[in-house]
Design goal:
By secondary structure, the protein is of the alpha/beta class. The chain has two domains: 157 residues, Rossmann fold (3-Layer(aba) Sandwich); 125 residues, 3-Layer(aba) Sandwich (Rossmann fold). Helices cover 30% and strands 27% of the residues. A six-stranded parallel beta sheet has the order 2-1-5-6-7-8, with helices on both faces. It has a six-stranded parallel beta sheet with strand order 10-9-13-14-15-16, with helices on both faces. Strands 3-4 form a two-stranded antiparallel sheet. Helix 1 packs across helix 8. The structure holds ribose-5-phosphate (R5P). Ribose-5-phosphate binds next to strand 13 and helix 6.
Length: 295
Amino acid sequence: MIVVSGSASNHLGFLVAKELSCKQLTTEVRMFPDGERYIRFAERIDGEDVVVIQSLYKNPDSLITEYGFMVRTLLEFGARRILGVFPYLAYLRQDQRFKDGEVVSSKVVSWMIETFDTSEVFVVDPHLHRLAGLKELFNIPAHNISAMPNLAHYAKEMLNATNPIIVAPDEEASQWAYKVASELNAEFKVAEKKRMGDNDVIIHLGDISPAGKDILLVDDMVSTGGTLATISKNLKLLGARRIIALVTHGLFAEGSYERLQDAGVDYIVTSDSVPNPYALVTVAPLIADAIRQEL
Ligand code: R5P
């Protein structure tokens, strides 16, 4: 087996290769001045299974193209099977036609991945909301890997979160918050969120009583920071002791760090599915385990 990293996941690819005790193929990727992409594999492969790791952030359209260029060429060079690893799979929030005429992007992206001839996919904490599982999206074997138990352990061991309340900012996030609550055997609450625009949400805390408590706020991703900032302000106003945000995918759109700090978030911990300054928990061993189990 051999590991190939797309340009969005070089470091994670290195860690996964290390975990699997296999080689990471040397690749050269660069952009031409007109925005076209140049890719060259500097070494040969020989009838091996190839793990191709590519997070689809920050330019998902360009990065999925890079993935396709790599996969097609690796197959041409004799790869036996392609195991596609998406630490962050973009476009999953557009999982239905909300308005007439919209593209259901998640369906097209999964079709592209299959059409390139990926044999199996591995996705870290996919944003599955209206879909029951990755099987509704893919016709090839698809594996869901969760960073949540590891984020929970980090909060417990490194941040000494004591007797915390685990809070999901909305119903969608309850699937991830539930995993953290089960791991820590802690109280679990779900708030209610209404999105008013890309940057604007309203959150009702319902029966959450945060006074004097450590709160572990759990979500699959942070983008503008609007969701976590809004709920943090509400929780702090009601006397929460510390707010620790546990998030798998730290996308951090411009201005989001400041927004979270201003809202009183005490700690942010993310996985390294997308490189960012708060990526304190690596998903490399989880990805390696999932691949090992499949082989
Ligand atoms: C919502 O569907 C997701 O689970 C996240 O809550 C959301 O994408 C976070 O976005 P933002 O940081 O922009 O509020």
